[in-house]
Amino acid sequence: MSENYESDTLQDFTPEAADARRVVVLISGNGSNLQALIDAQSHDALGGEVVAVVSNEPGAYGLTRAREAGIDAVVLPHREYESRDAYDGALIKVIERHEPDLVVLAGFMRILTPRFVQRFLGRLINIHPSLLPDYQGLNTHARALADGVAEHGCSVHFVTEELDGGPVLMQAVVEVAADETEESLKQKVHAREHLIYPIAVKWCLEGRLQFTGEGATLDGTPLPPHGMRMSHADAAEELDEDLEA
């Protein structure tokens, strides 16, 4: 009798599927990094689901990318708010309506208020087009070329109240060619952003990358100041770039 009971129970038991981890992406423009996340999700390589895309710019092409992927696309124009704090308060409400596990900045061209940062601290990440802490802020490619650097790249980092100053999670390096232009460098850096951002998002959603008071950790081990760094050669191989070029 006990055998029959156990057998019937097992036959009738259907494990409940774990709810997918939820991601909200903030954009202001084209949304190429958003597309990289959408592509990763379509191949079950994101570790979660982009449930909403929010833009402060109504004409941002990234909103079209979201709609085409069946993702909720929300326009929240910053010009309709009297202050930065008022806008961020409204943005918090829009984001929290979607109950995200992670908030991802993907070309969101707004300086965030301390109130906003503290609300999502530890689950708010950004990608920046330089090897942080070098070249915080804007015009990173032109500044790197002007300085004659040998290496440039991109960084994924946790967002803190210091602009582009949060703990770095991951970087990818570009070796700067002798005949490099701002446009060619920008394209190489973009390719690396699209390579590492989905990985960083996945590892955050899986709990492998975490924010602590002292910095960031991977699987409980503190990361160095530059986080995990993908070399130029490794990135070029992943991207099928010509190393002889």
From TrEMBL:
<feature type="binding site">
    <location>
        <position position="84"/>
    </location>
    <ligand>
        <name>(6R)-10-formyltetrahydrofolate</name>
    </ligand>
</feature>
<protein>
    <recommendedName>
        <fullName>Phosphoribosylglycinamide formyltransferase</fullName>
        <ecNumber>2.1.2.2</ecNumber>
    </recommendedName>
</protein>
<comment type="similarity">
    <text>Belongs to the GART family.</text>
</comment>
<dbReference type="InterPro" id="IPR001555">
    <property type="entry name" value="GART_AS"/>
</dbReference>
<feature type="binding site">
    <location>
        <begin position="31"/>
        <end position="33"/>
    </location>
    <ligand>
        <name>N(1)-(5-phospho-beta-D-ribosyl)glycinamide</name>
    </ligand>
</feature>
<feature type="binding site">
    <location>
        <position position="126"/>
    </location>
    <ligand>
        <name>(6R)-10-formyltetrahydrofolate</name>
    </ligand>
</feature>
<comment type="function">
    <text>Catalyzes the transfer of a formyl group from 10-formyltetrahydrofolate to 5-phospho-ribosyl-glycinamide (GAR), producing 5-phospho-ribosyl-N-formylglycinamide (FGAR) and tetrahydrofolate.</text>
</comment>
<feature type="domain" description="Formyl transferase N-terminal">
    <location>
        <begin position="22"/>
        <end position="200"/>
    </location>
</feature>
<keyword id="KW-0658">Purine biosynthesis</keyword>
<dbReference type="GO" id="GO:0006189">
    <property type="term" value="P:'de novo' IMP biosynthetic process"/>
</dbReference>
<feature type="site" description="Raises pKa of active site His">
    <location>
        <position position="164"/>
    </location>
</feature>
<dbReference type="InterPro" id="IPR002376">
    <property type="entry name" value="Formyl_transf_N"/>
</dbReference>
<comment type="pathway">
    <text>Purine metabolism; IMP biosynthesis via de novo pathway; N(2)-formyl-N(1)-(5-phospho-D-ribosyl)glycinamide from N(1)-(5-phospho-D-ribosyl)glycinamide (10-formyl THF route): step 1/1.</text>
</comment>
<feature type="active site" description="Proton donor">
    <location>
        <position position="128"/>
    </location>
</feature>
<keyword id="KW-0808">Transferase</keyword>
<dbReference type="GO" id="GO:0005829">
    <property type="term" value="C:cytosol"/>
</dbReference>
<dbReference type="GO" id="GO:0004644">
    <property type="term" value="F:phosphoribosylglycinamide formyltransferase activity"/>
</dbReference>
<dbReference type="InterPro" id="IPR036477">
    <property type="entry name" value="Formyl_transf_N_sf"/>
</dbReference>
<dbReference type="InterPro" id="IPR004607">
    <property type="entry name" value="GART"/>
</dbReference>
<dbReference type="Pfam" id="PF00551">
    <property type="entry name" value="Formyl_trans_N"/>
</dbReference>
<feature type="binding site">
    <location>
        <begin position="109"/>
        <end position="112"/>
    </location>
    <ligand>
        <name>(6R)-10-formyltetrahydrofolate</name>
    </ligand>
</feature>
